[in-house]
Write a structure and sequence with these properties.
Elements: E1 7-8, H1 12-28, E2 35-40, H2 44-53, E3 59-69, E4 72-81, E5 91-95, E6 98-99, H3 103-114, E7 119-123, E8 126-127, E9 140-141, E10 145-146, H4 152-160, H5 166-179, H6 183-200
Helix pairs in contact: 1-2, 4-6
Length: about 200
Amino acid sequence: MVNNQEYQVPTWNQIYDMLLNQTQKINKAHFNPDIIVAVSRGGLVPARILSDLLEVQNLAIIRVEFYVGINKTREQPIITQSLSAPVTAKKVLIVDDISDTGKSLKLVTEHILTQGATEAQTATIYAKPASTFTPDYFEKQTSSWVIFPWDAKETLRKIFQKQNGKRALNKEIAQVIKAGLPKPLTEKLLTNMQKDQNNDAPL
């Protein structure tokens, strides 16, 4: 099987710089959220950074499950952890790392408004051109699969689990490294995964 998946690997510094730019956009729009809601798990880190940059201390979490593999999803996203704080009569900034299909952000936005929020806006670092939901704020558009620092092992695990043969695996790992995931880190994560797999094997 030929793999045509393209990858993009932003660094921590690039992500922080993009979130700084996003902060300026949010301030320029005169949107002053009372609370930031992180869409777990992808939105946890950017939400915490935006909480600091926007000086919004109230931070809540909602969890949505949708992806089961690289570019493989459930039929519809589902909320698996309800809001960790009330949003009644509050202006809410919903944060995720990427708007891929847009279905998760749409679900969360609708849910938060039904919970009594007076306004809900959305912010992501990346947005896919094919997304059916355009965030109010995003920094870059890409059709590539984005590997964030906080999900590098998860992405490598999904690649590893494809089981398309060693040659195909090595080729895809090489693509990931070429996209910017440091080779020493990639090798270390793969070694750890192989150890975990061996430890889980029946005796």
